[in-house]
Amino acid sequence: MSKRDYYEILGVGKDARDPEIKGAYRKLALKFHPDRNPDDPHAEENFKEASEAYSVLSDAQKRAAYDRYGHAGLQGAAGAAGFNPEAFTDFSDILGNFFDLGDLFGGGGGGRRHNRAQRGEDVRYDLELTFEEAVFGMNADIQVARMDRCDRCAGAGSEPGSGPTQCPTCHGRGEVLYQQSFLSIRRTCSTCGGSGRVIRNPCGQCRGNGFRQIQRKLKVTVPAGVDNNTRIRLATEGQPGSNGGPPGDLYVFLKVKEHAFFERHEQDLHCTIPINLAQAALGAEIDVPTLDQPHKLKIPEGTQSGAQFRVRHKGVPVVNGSGRGDLYVHVEVQIPTRLTRDQKKLMEQLRDTLPVDNAPAEKGLFDKVKDYFM
Ligand SMILES: [Zn+2]
Ligand SMILES: [Zn+2]
Cα of 211 to ligand 1 centre, how many Å? Predict the structure, then answer.
């Protein structure tokens, strides 16, 4: 690929003076700056091309050689065109430099990407609860594995007493300056990653990274009324952030065990109680278990199997709210399978006195049986 003429690139005449060249380059540098043209490889090419043209035309000696011999005049010269495109790979640094120049972007500070504060990751913890614990709430002591600042080196990464030393490459500044024409290009120091310090004697506990795995003990307050899959967030109890970023959060996922007797439907509870034939026919007062005290439930005369009774406010509390659901008691009339002789006699007497089709609910059934045998 043949190289374009440097004057043409900058859009200036062969007799252009230094201020004109400088102004033309600034205009192009701003226009094609990769930070202003993300994902545009042409802009990056144009930017490098303009920088290279400027580096030659702003240098009297190189410009003279170029005017006389063209691109060939710069071959083999010290540092070739004196332009190292690699120096421009980290564009944020150049932008930061532009900020420092002030007159280009109107002042203000530029940040270096390498040291950007990052929020720590969220952590998940699964907590299993009994049915009652979910209904009434509880305090759980949990232990969560996560990273924490190393206590041996206090997060510094060096063996106690040795301390990190100043980075020999950048002398503690965290960045290295390259002089490029009127631009001084800053790059994050690769030796220390921008921190300005290097660890000569890494901490034996964390191997120099300043963090270590710990088992953090926490108290979790589970409010009354939570259900399966409820999440409880413990802010800032996740992994620590880096470069001064905030820590993540801890999410406690609740898993609630089933109950042997009660079934939960949202805020209501359901249960099934067996009653005997006499209780169903004559009515009775029975003790119904609830999650609190047993409740005395009146069963009216003539209760059918499958009937349901509501006991108010014996259900599940509303989470972080007021009130409770209800308890629904389903009764199941038990037909005796084994009778004593006396019971049998009584049952026979009962049978002889009972009309065959007295119960309205069963009328249809008896009619069907009659129809069948007629
Ligand atoms: Zn350590
Ligand atoms: Zn350094």
Answer: 6
- Ligand 2 centroid distance, CA of 194 (Å): 6
* 184 Cα: distance to centroid of ligand 1 (angstroms): 37
In the reported structure, the alpha carbon of residue 152 is separated from the centroid of ligand 1 by a whole-number distance in angstroms of 5
Q: What is the pTM of this model?
A: 0.53
Looking at 2.40.160.20, 2.60.260.20, 2.40.100.10, 2.40.170.20, the CATH number of the domain 263-373 comes to 2.60.260.20
- Distance from the alpha carbon of residue 199 to the mean position of ligand 2, in angstroms: 11
- Return the domain boundaries, the chain: 6-89, 123-155+210-256, 263-373
* Whether CATH 3.20.10.10 fits 123-155+210-256: no
Looking at all shown ligands, the one closest to residue 147's CA atom is 1
Ligand nearest to the CA of 202: 1
Task: Classify burial at 231, counting beta carbons within 10 Å of its beta carbon; exposed 0-12, middle 13-18, buried 19 or more.
Answer: exposed
Q: How far apart are CA 181 and CA 368, in angstroms?
A: 108
- C-alpha of residue 205 to centroid of ligand 2, in Å: 24
Q: Which CATH number fits domain 6-89: 3.40.140.10, 1.10.10.1400, 1.10.287.110, 1.25.40.10?
A: 1.10.287.110
Distances (CA, A) of 22 to 73, 93, 320: 22, 20, 67
The ligand placed nearest to the CA atom of residue 210 is 1
Ligand number, closest to the Cα atom of 192: 2
Domains 6-89 and 263-373 share a fold: no
Q: In a 10 Å sphere around its CB, with 0-12 CB exposed, 13-18 middle and 19+ buried, how is residue 24 labelled?
A: buried
CA–CA separation, 348 vs 188, rounded Å? Answer: 101
Give pLDDT tens digits along the chain (374 positions). Answer: 578 899 999 999 988 888 888 888 888 888 887 777 777 878 888 888 888 898 889 888 888 888 888 888 777 544 333 444 433 433 433 333 333 333 333 223 333 334 567 898 999 999 999 999 999 999 999 999 888 888 888 887 888 888 778 888 888 888 888 776 667 777 888 888 888 888 888 888 888 888 888 899 999 999 999 999 999 999 999 998 877 789 999 999 999 999 999 999 999 999 999 999 999 999 999 999 999 899 999 999 999 999 999 999 999 999 988 899 999 999 999 999 999 999 999 999 999 998 876 555 555 666 666 666 65
Q: Which ligand is nearest to the CA of 204?
A: 1
